[in-house]
Fold each of these.
Amino acid sequence: MAIRYGIQADSEAECAQALTELCEQLGLVPRMLPKLLTDNRWMARAVPAPRRTDETAGR
């Protein structure tokens, strides 16, 4: 099951600010940058950062 965090806002700037704060505070990575939807609202998504394993840490 995938974990996703969604943001809805009235403006692109508000959506981008919320996405930035969410990523900084929870250690998430953006998955969908702010996008204008058909009903004149903005949406963005973030997901947890991938975990590094011992195998990928040396690469």
Amino acid sequence: MLAYQIAHYVFVVLDYFPYVLFVYILMSWFPGAYETGFGRFLSKICEPVLAPFRKIIPPIGGVLDLSPIIAFFAIRMATFGLQYLVYNYILPIVV
């Protein structure tokens, strides 16, 4: 039972992370938003996720950053894949 609860909480975090990433991206529209305490907190969470995508896909024209879009899709696909593996193969063995 504990394994199911842990898996559930991990997947809740993974389900809500794209929303956190979306808020972080919207903050770029407001000058000085990244310098606030909330902006620094989101930066610590979101930048490690976006950095590998930015290495692969540089900003177009130095302005348009498409890496968050790719990150959204990668996070969702990884979440669905992990949920399938955990709930169909790993948890039935553990429990």
